[in-house]
From TrEMBL:
It comes from Roseococcus suduntuyensis. This is DNA polymerase I. Keywords: DNA damage, DNA repair, DNA replication, DNA-binding, DNA-directed DNA polymerase, Exonuclease, Hydrolase, Nuclease, Nucleotidyltransferase, Transferase. Pfam families: 5_3_exonuc (PF01367), 5_3_exonuc_N (PF02739), DNA_pol_A (PF00476), DNA_pol_A_exo1 (PF01612). One of its GO terms (biological process) is DNA-templated DNA replication. Its EC number is 2.7.7.7. The lineage of its organism: Bacteria, Pseudomonadati, Pseudomonadota, Alphaproteobacteria, Acetobacterales.
Amino acid sequence: MTTTPIEGVAEASRPALPAEDRHLILVDGSGYIFRAYHALPPMTRPDGTPVNAVFGFAQMLEKFLSQHVASHIAVVFDSARETFRNAIYPAYKAHRPEPPEELVPQFALIRDATDAFGVCRVELPGFEADDLIASYAREFEAEGGRVTIVSSDKDLMQLIRDRVIMLDPIKQKPIRAPEVMEKFGVAPEKVVEVQALAGDATDNVPGVPGIGIKTAAQLITEYGDLETLLARAGEIKQPKRREVLQTHAEAARISRKLVQLDVNAPLPCPVEDMRARAPEPARLLAFLRENNFRSLLARLGEGDGGAPHRPRPVVDTAEASPEAAPFGPYTTITDRATLDAWIVEARAAGVVALDTETTSLDALAARLVGICLATAPGRAAYIPLGHAPADMLTEMPAQLPQAEAVEALRPLLADPGVLKVLHNAKYDVEVLANPANGGLTVAPLDDTMMISYALEAGLHGHGMDELSQLHLGHKPISFDEVTGTGRARISFAQVPLDRATAYAAEDADVTLRLWHALRPRLRAEKALALYEQVERRMIPVLAAMETAGIKVDGAELARIGQDFAERLVVLEAECHRLVGRPFNVGSPKQLGEILFQEMGLKGGKKGKTGAYSTDASVLEELAAQGVELARTVLDWRQLAKLKSTYVEGLAAALAADGRVHTDFSMAITSTGRLSSTEPNLQNIPIRTEEGVRIRRAFVAEPGHVLMSADYSQIELRLLAHLADVPTLREAFANGEDIHSRTAAEIFHLEPGKVDKEARRRAKTINFGIIYGMSAFGLGARLGIGPGEARGIIDAYFAQYPGIRAEMERLKDEARIHGHVLSPFGRRLWIADIKSKDPVRRGGAERQAINAPFQGGAAEVIKRAMVRVPQALRDAGLSARMLLQVHDELVLEVPEAEVDATAATLKSVMESVAQLRVPLLVEVGHGRSWAEAH
């Protein structure tokens, strides 16, 4: 077998190394473990023990040893959850979830893998791996040696010095003082001071509220260290900053103790025991054979590597080199023998990209035309299944019968040992699950669209063609190029097989290359948990919801349509009466001329076409001035839109089963929120009479009810959580009316003296603050002047100073990084934040303020959605989710299971996130969606 470059002779015969040749590599073992676990699908060895993390760890360790040479090496592990830091601060890391059940039995095997490769492993109860790394680095450096810490953990950056560097294990890039300065704004020896102020939500390090990395770096640069800063806090000119530093001084001191690594931690293993050595062949081979790691055996020169269920490797962009392979030519699969050979190849690869060609963009109505596979960059094929000649004179193209191809593919697509990679996987999952297309199950899977979305929501689009040009520098063949355009367009089923293969197989090839390029970034950019735990798990949840659909009462819909039509006639007649003559109410041009020419109203502005603008903002302003025509036209427009979008739109969307099957878009918004189309069910008015009427048409099947579970004031709760406002937290904790409490505090009223008008104003500002509303905007909402509105806003911020500090922090974060973070760590990219246009920049700043609240709310309900189905099954309940509308879930529930389902819903939804304030879910039910509210 081959040996790694890190090898040597027996310990007893080794001479002492000169200091300049002494190089210690310390591998952060925990980082490797979780990277391996999340990168691989579930795997088991013959006795049923899960080993996906073990295999990934062994593979990464073998690769690292083959590429790096050192005199000493050790892998350092965390020994237990409880350390000396928990005695200092019991909440330290307390919110971290327990490791997955299937990972727990793999911890011991991972340590066996380290031993089998001949690498010293180090751990010590009561100390974190980071402390041991710090202590060994100090000891080895004191002896004149060099140290490389293999980790991307920011906490270890405090250790960097001339002879101690870090190596990012994913990017394989060194991290030295300049990289630390870029990240923290200070030199490595000051990192602890900055972390003490900024805190760390990941580890529950409290820090000082409202102070982020940038501000902390500025303060430490000015004052030198934490104690000096706290001693001189009274000198700080900014009152709010001075106040929080004085109030939270002890929390900062505790935080410093938590983030300071213990360079004097005991050394459980003598440094010389870390001397690099070759693994014992018998021991390593026995370990690999026991765990059935045949591909690693083959790599080391043993065995054939041809395991029928070989796990997919951990691939990074440097190893895969997807850009090196040409795009095509590709294979057309028209016979069973060729298909079988590709299936064997896919199993051997352990990962296969998959795409479908169909007759429709409607996944539930689409029929298969062909299936595409890719097993390696540049290695892809197209399986035509539903092609037909364009005319009677053309011979039928050769292709496999669909039923035969589907049955051949069925085991592969369901094989837990082969990862299927798709782009916009929800569509293909629904297409293939359709019994008309074979009823295929696709699992496990990765979705390159959702990987991109988890990394860069709001930065750009996430369509395959756009991502290909962005990440691969390749422009794929367009659909129009193969089908034509306009009257000359043909269906894809009529495209000749050579052109169809070039187009379709390229899609699978591009998808696989994108996976190679994007998947390794998830952990490095802290988006892995978001993708693995939320976005990827949403795919089957939404597919099930879309397939289920929701029942619509056609007769009730017709009655609503008739009523709306009659009311439109009345409103139109009223508009004509107000003008004194008939005109086309739906014509902006005619309306503009009437308002600003005939009636002589002020404020008219012409657009590029020469017509006056009469959009909603213009009419709202006129209506606020008492112009009756403007108000009546607004009412007419709203009713006309509801009639066309929902009454007529729903009627057109009704399927043969009497249900509407909306399409949830997963990667459109910049905040993580879902949107829906065909039809859009997200924008039905909630509080208007017309919206209630429309919701009355959504009904349950006989013997069932519709149940609505709605998060109460989720964005305000996130505001209280993020800004850490004690009075708001107290109000939510006590179940008070938050708007009345706000009114009492900002208007200085007794709690019992808050009237409806004061509460209305407080409610408007509570929600307006989340959207970065200006004094002008608030004044327009409340019907008061900007000056009075500014006074209300000032009073609000005076009462809740933490909110203004949080808003300023968010704007700073967006300016510095180009994005803000949701409460759960999603990067929300903010376009135009550095625009020179003050209007666009102002809009971007408002978006930066609002995005964490919308994004946080979106993630809360997504976390609920991925947990609810399993919770219902575990409780023996048969309710099914049908819709998600912003902060609300709608389910269809058997009448006999109403109480049990409501209890399960509340329990799951209120426990998906631990905030500083409680989550509250309001549950109702009824025969219709309207009755459920």
